[in-house]
Amino acid sequence: MQICTCTNYTNYIVDPSTNDDNRTNSGNISEGLLSNSLQLTLLAADPEDNNIIAKYSVSAATNEYPDSRNVPQGPLFYGWFYDKTVSDSLKLISQKYLAVCYDYVPEFSSFLDRNMYFANVSNPFAYYVKPSDPDTRVIDPFYHTTAKFCGRLPCPEYAAKVAKVLGKSFQMHIVGLFFTKRTYGYRIKLTSHEQDIFEVDERKNSLQTATVSEVLDNQIQNSSSPIDGTVHEYEGYFHSGKTPNHPLYPGIHFEPQPTDFHPTESRAHVTIGCAPKVQPQQTGLDLVEIVDLEISGHIPHLDFSIGGADVPKAILRQFWDSEGGDPVFVLYPKEQMVTDATFSVYI
Description:
This protein is an alpha+beta fold. The protein folds into 2 domains: 164 residues, no CATH class; 167 residues, no CATH class. 22% of the residues lie in helices and 26% in strands. Strands 6, 7, 8, 9, 10, 11, 12, 13, 14 and 15 form a 10-stranded antiparallel beta sheet that branches. A hairpin with a 7-residue loop joins strand 12 and strand 13. The longest helix has 21 residues. The chain is globular and about 50 Å long. The N and C termini lie close together (4 Å). The relative contact order is 0.20.
């Protein structure tokens, strides 16, 4: 839990999973998935100093955040936190992309159906479940990108390093999505400033010691995808002209994707959901493996064109993992999602 210096109690909304077993049309999934809401009430930590223990750094009442003076010695993690408006939009976009993939790519639906069968899950939208709070076991409505995991142990050097940016807003660039049998997540392209405060150990495999220039050269030479190393032929943004917010997805601004948006330099991500009995830490590990697949440039893959209705057009690429086992699906949208997030700490 995080300490927020605010004075009003606030109710946040958590969306439970739907039990509808029918395959859902990608254009009309929001109503069934966003109903029957559950309320989560914030609790007072100490009435004498007006502190509120909140789930994340965002307070809908005051939008206030902790500073370096009231961060405890052992926080769970530091990171970028997306407010409720943005989180709702990210959730809806992820649902729509899952629906499009499931409805129109047989290879993907076979992949998900097989994993659902072994997990005893009958609803495609209930296979990947957002992780719950480790203390309360309640699913939190907000998304985040972890920058430093402390595990409730003291992180004095890192705390001093980021003291001046606590509570500050950052512009985050969400450049893609990925599905494995274990996790479903967004991938983040960090700016150089964000990369400086990102201290999650992402260099797990030898392939990732390659320089960015070597990676991009390898991608262009070995990839069959039309989005690698090419300039997109379209102009403008998805359904939004050049307005700051998309009308269907408040808080999200779509921009044309740069040609070098993957591989990403780090495992920075947002966990959308995990398969049964899978811990959220696995999402970053899965992304490390995906980056290795992209860097290699020699892994067999199939490409499928999707989207273009309620979500930007994209290439869905099916990889086979490094051990030749279960497939991995990586989604490369033609437009990135740009949104604001606040750097703070989860207690």
